[in-house]
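Board notes (copied after class):
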Amino acid sequence: MRVDSILNSGVKGFQQATERANQAAQEIASQSVSDASKEGINQKDLVESLVDLKVAEHDAKANAKVIETAGELIGSLLDVKA
């Protein structure tokens, strides 16, 4: 596997995780907390959105590690080449 494809995979995965986190955050923000006592808030949707946000966070961290590792690999290859 080529190093640039590893780096591109990490960047693409990070962007997708960011989009999922933004969507989940928007869903959370659109819920009215003051309506919770009146059952105006769908708690199942809120919990699912919170879980989606946490999953997106973990995905972003994992993809950031892939990007970091690819960068280190590129640095090592340059050191060997020099």
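Comment from the instructor: Residues 49 and 62 are 20 Å apart (CA to CA). The chain has one domain: 3-81.
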